[in-house]
Design a protein that fits this description.
Blueprint: H1 2-14, H2 22-38, H3 43-57, H4 63-164
Helix pairs in contact: 1-2, 1-4, 2-3, 3-4
Amino acid sequence: MKNEKLMEIVEKLEEIKNVKEQKEIMRIINCMAELKETFPKYAMKADEMLNILHMQINGMGSCWETECAIKDLIEELKEEVAKGETLERLKDKYDEAKDRAVQAIPEVKKTCSKAITTAGNIGKGFADTINKEIPQISEGIGRVKAAAKNTKKGIKSKIKEWALSDDKE
């Protein structure tokens, strides 16, 4: 809205052809009043423009100075319009990105929930397997210990038999 109003003032200033004519001087004054009223940040620029115009009217300035000041002001206002348009585009892109993010969040939550559930199921499966295997592991360890004892006893008994035998081989 403000960009449109600013562009309207720029267009009015661009239409000014001859700063010597009374009608054109009034258009400049009206544009400066509108600029000051609608855009307080440009009040000083508008006052400067009015001072240059006042000096021209009183014969202390030239039309050339007035025309240059108008051209400079037009360029500055056009830059402001371009900034405003850029900000509007950025706002639109931000809103669009925000909408996409809002739409994506439920899908991300769903995917994360599935991943967590899957990881939990895998962990539960490992725990179940380990719990089933633990009794068998301890039984196996008991058998290995018993086999070692039995082997030791067997070796001792064979050595005793050999040592006590009367065979002289």
